[in-house]
Amino acid sequence: DTQMDCIWEAVARVCNVPDDAIQSKSRVAEWKMARFYFWYFVRTRTDVTWVHMGQYAGKRDHSTAIHGYQSICDWAMVEKPVKRRIEQIEEVPFEEQHLIDIEVLDEEQD
After folding, report:
1. Which of 6, 40, 58, 99 has its CA 20 to 30 A from that of 52?
2. Does the predicted model carry a pTM greater than 0.85?
3. Positive or negative, the Cα torsion across 21, 49, 99, 11?
4. Tally of CB atoms within 10 A around 16
């Protein structure tokens, strides 16, 4: 879940949604789109299963995660704002941030 935590942090920051939006049942457009971007990045950057992605995002069904991922893939080809948002999220160094967080935790435990 650490990989997904880091990806969600990056998506939430760029999409300007609260951290708990990933678990929320809300259909507020901004929150829903943030979840869709989350599923896109988890799918393209990890080997996490659809079932696990859905469970992480508020115990949703795997088909919801697939739908969100596919929607972003489709929209990115024709919708400039979606493509720009993907590029903005890609600029966030969430893998590096994860490593920094681990180093800080290790130092705190010593």
Report:
1. 99
2. no
3. negative
4. 9
Per DSSP, the three-state class of 27 is coil
| Cβ–Cβ < 8 Å for 69, 55 | no
Is the sign of the CA dihedral 57, 18, 44, 80 positive or negative? positive
42 within 8 A of 9, measured Cβ to Cβ:
no
Q: Shortest CA distance to 57 belongs to which of 19, 103, 15? A: 19
Q: Quote the tokens at residue 25.
A: 């049942």
User: Comparing C-alpha atoms, which of 86, 75, 78, 79 is closest to residue 37?
Assistant: 86
User: What pLDDT digit, counting tens, does each position of 6-22 carry?
Assistant: 999 999 999 999 989 88
Question: How many other C-beta atoms are found inside a 10 Å radius of the C-beta of residue 39?
Answer: 28
